[in-house]
Amino acid sequence: MKRKLEISSAQITIRGLVKRYHYQPVLDNLSLTVEDGDFCVLVGANGAGKTTLLRIIASLVRPDSGEILLGDDLLGVNPQLRQRIGFVSHQPMFYQDLTAIENLRHYARLYQTSRVDETINNGIRSAGLSQHLNKPLRAYSRGMQQRLSIARALLHDPVILLFDEPYTGLDQDAARFLDGKLKQLHQPGRAILLAAHRPQRLLPIASHIAWLKDGKIIQHLPISCLSESPELEQYLQEVA
Amino acid sequence: MSPILRYLRVIWQIIRKDIRLEWRGRQGVPVMLVFSLLVVFLFNFALQLSPDLQAGLAAGLLWVSLAFAATLGLNRSISLERESGALDGLLLAPVDRSAIFFGKSLSNFLFTSLVALVLLPVFSLFYGNNILNLSLILIVLLGVGATTSLGTLLAALSIQTRTRDVLLPVLLYPLALPILIAAVEASRGVLSGRALSDSRNWILLLLACDVLFTAAGLMFFETILEE
Amino acid sequence: MPKKPPGLIILDILSLIGVLCALGLILFFTPVEATMGPVQKVFYFHVASAWAGMLSFILAAAAGAGYLITRRFSWDWLSLSAVEVGVIFGLIAILSGMIWARPIWNTWWVWDPRLTTTAIMELIFGAYFILRSGLNTPEARARLGAVYAVVSVATVPLTFFSIRFFRTIHPVVIAGTSSGAAFNMSPRMLVAFFTSLAAFTILLADLVWNRFRLAKLKATNQQEMQ
Fold first, then answer.
1. Which of A180, B211, C16, C26 has a 20 to 30 Å separation from C131 between CA atoms?
2. Cβ proximity of A99 and A118 under 8 Å
3. pLDDT tens per residue across span A49-61
4. CA end-to-end span of chain C
5. Rounded to a whole number, what is the distance in Å from the CA of C205 to chain B's nearest CA?
6. CA dihedral sign, ordered C38, C44, C50, C53
7. What is the ipTM of this complex?
8. Cβ–Cβ under 8 Å, residues A24 and A176
9. Cβ-count burial C107-130 (b if 16+ within 10 Å, e if not)
10. Which residues have a Cβ under 8 Å from the Cβ of C176 and sit 6 or more positions away?
């Protein structure tokens, strides 16, 4: 019999996460839940641990203690779980000598995506890069590589999306493309966690905001309730 | 799709990707080949070797060249992953990370063996030994296999340090000594015209190294890469 | 600085007594060997040092495995201490080997399996330090150092046997005798031999514990200072 309140697979539950560098905790008993349909913006000072948190959820970094659940499933037990995650980081994660198509095909094969060519072409087209299909990545600008990186992350249709400062180094066009993409992705059946240390442009599109300070999430609220936290409002004004 | 099939497909995809990169850039195998030939030349003049090279010297020279060439290949292979964070991309893949180890070490094995198989006939040109025989090729494959397994594991280590590539030979060579000794001795036996079975112990040692270093890769590769 | 634990003080004293006893036995109790003369007496400390060096390596690898399993830093401090102390014993083994070899075989170095393996062990220790110093965080140093220690200890038996087998095929004949310790030990020599082994083992434990203590204090200091 199906459980009435089944946890959606698009939910991130983090409990008691600890990660130390140089013996000091960067993440200090951190807990956070990003629900299905949330678009949560993660704010905090540079070096506060936003990147570390995202990389831990993406399984690139191993935490010292704590647990992360994607839906009902514990992260770290079954590598298959990574199928649900799409990660866009500072680095585009491409082989510079290969073309866009070759790079995306590589990822499609790593994720065993079906209907590879169709998905790839859609991705490239929506990123507006159809004319540059067969050029090596070396020829791409930072903005173009980042756009392609987003297409890469979405190839296998992940339900959990992690973005680490995706607007850094983007030109106006690319930034607008990203805005559009994020609006598109923000829907039930997906959860988005996006780290930004200047979150102004995201406040109109996102649904939640989480403030990482001193290794913990000290505030986590829906954006509509932002006025309930004057400290957070003040912090946001300071970094604007 | 069954997990095993997925796993094998990922390994194959990594090898494929490395072959494609090699074909695109042509910076790996040609460089390794030219460098090993240079080493042969260098030793030739430094040690004043004559064309009628003894089996022992020939074997030694062959394996020293291969050891240096292998290091070049291993470094290039892991550096390509580090550039633009492609290694993170591999780590994100929904398979057990030992697949990355197998993929990388098999592609390293492929390229280094290629260099070896080109080096062998060139050797016989210079030194006149009948260097092209099946037993020798078997020994070369075993020796290169063990070296590339160990080397892939240690390259993952060295790439994370400030000294990067430069560290790999320092980490690798002391541990690769049994491979070197066994490979040289077995090669020497074969080059002196003895049957392969005479070098049985050395072959067994090479096999032991292959097994040991593959197991080490399986056990530790993920730990090395996961911060 | 906190006080030394009493156990360590006792160990300090024991190791001092042990080494002095061994020295006494070697100098006054053992006979002078017939063919080699008084220089042969270097042999006792030479073998004991090599033994202690090997033990250190095994300890370093075991402690490394301990870190990888538990992720507790004490294991890493133990591993590092074992390697540092092992380097010293290895060096003593090599130097005493050279002192012994020179008058007897008229050469500073013999490529015999034990000595060669000890030299390689020193190189591996050296690589271990270079690896650690190239890493930026204590966590990385501990984790990657541990992996290298465990992988390298597995190669040592292979290295030893391959060199040994190599030597049976290519024996090195030096000045008329074949290399290697070719003498039988009389009962008195055996007593001195085993006493040296025991003394150096205690000394190893003592030095490692002292070094471990320092590593722990340093790390705790760092934690408090930040």
1. B211
2. no
3. 999 999 999 999 9
4. 19
5. 26
6. negative
7. 0.92
8. no
9. eeebebbbbbbbbbbbbbbebbeb
10. none
Tokens at residue C179, please?
A: 């290399």
pTM of the model: 0.92
Judge whether C1 is closer than 8 Å to chain B, CB to CB.
no
pLDDT tens digit string along C197-206?
Answer: 999 999 999 9
> Chain C: nearest CA to B184, how far in angstroms?
10
Does the beta-carbon distance from A21 to C219 stay under 8 Å? no
Classify residue A156 as exposed, middle or buried by CB count within 10 Å of its CB (0-12, 13-18, 19+).
Answer: buried
CB B75 within 8 A of CB B172: no
The pair of structure tokens assigned to A12 is: 């991130």
Chain B residues inside the 8 Å CB shell of A165: none
Single-letter code of the amino acid located at B225: L
Tokens 């678009």 found at? A39
From CA B179, how far away is CA B168, in angstroms rounded? 16
Give the H or E element holding residue A74: strand A73-74
If you write DSSP's letter for every residue of B116-138 in order, what string do you get? Answer: HHHHHHHHHHHH-S----HHHHH
- A88-104 pLDDT tens trace: 998 899 999 999 999 99
**Residue that is written with structure tokens 């010292």 in the block:** A64
On whether the CB atoms of residues B27 and B18 are closer than 8 A, the answer is no
Cα separation, A123 vs C86, in Å, equals 57
Q: A80: which chain B residues are within 8 Å (Cβ-Cβ)?
A: 3, 94-95
Q: Are B221 and B100 in contact (CB under 8 A)?
A: yes
B202 and B82 Cβ atoms separated by less than 8 Å: no
**DSSP secondary-structure letter at A20?**
E
